[in-house]
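Re: that chain you flagged

S.,

Sorry for the slow reply, it's been a week of failed gels. I finally had a moment to sit down with the sequence you sent. For the record, here it is as I used it:
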Amino acid sequence: MEAGIVGLPNVGKSTLFNALTSSGAAQSANYPFCTIEPNEGIVSVPDPRLDIITSFIPPQKVIPAVLKLVDIAGIVEGASKGEGLGNKFLSHIREVDAILQVVRCFENEDITHVTGAVNPISDIEVIEMELLLADMETLANALPKAERAARGGDKEAALRVDVIKRCSAHADQEKPLRILEFTPDEARVVRGLGLMTAKPILYIANVDEDGVAGDNEYVQKVREHADSVGAQVVPVCARFEEELGELDDADRLEMLESVGLTEPALGTVARAAYKTLGLQSYFTAGEKEVRAWTIPVGATAPQAAGVIHTDFEKGFIRCEVYAVPDLQELKSEKEIRAAGRMRVEGKDYVMQDGDICHFLFNK
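Prediction finished late last night. Pasting the structure tokens below so you have them in one place:
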């Protein structure tokens, strides 16, 4: 699963990507098309539950969950018609599973805004409309082929026709497709079409150092918009986070305290992106390693086991499960078992976020 970072030129998108992935200095903010091929990076997802687990089960190593991020070049108005190499950039968005839109929520005379004025809602609407126009074209091109196949009695094609028509009618109202509800079969069709406004979205409000609390008027407007479409907002000062990443632990803590933060905002971004992708973590814990494993929300125990190794899913017998609060209270797995708090779950068990598991399987 991967998330694509998008935004208009000069909103701090690449600065944020560099800070998140520690991939080096950001490219100049005043060159909108400095990135044609997307940069990719892997980001750890900070999880305080790992610290709790390792305090009771000290391992040789700790492995957090990770996310793959893709830095996609700045999109401009007209991208759906090829402006600013738009077709190339939009094709990169089709390949990701979720969208992280960086929205400029700061004033700075030295960094030119592409439209000449800072207006976060206008920025959101420009990108949303470009993605929607591209989706409308995709739907219009896909419909004739699906209709021909459906006339031949292809049931899958008939479903595609229904989904395409429903999506087209919704898009014609200039509404993103992510607010529609789909059955699992319909959602599969939508994913196959690569519809960009159907992808979940997270708004990252890029503020200046005076706005790290996320309470300026620009951020408030973004929050109001996000609430209307069921999305999250995370305020971040990308430049501050980039500087923070260059410090040692002691100086980093001092700098965080100076602006009233307890941790880098990038941790909040990573966790919010993880949630936006519909992901959760479960843990395995032992002397060799304590590790967070990434699974979709709703995954069953066998599917979770399969993330470790496909043989675990094929030969799944059962799993033993307990929760982090059990470990905090009882201090060890031995005591958890003695207290009858080690649950035994079968193939139909739906994994819960934060489960600590041992899988039993046939080799």
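What I noticed first: The longest strand covers residues 289-296.

Talk soon,
D.
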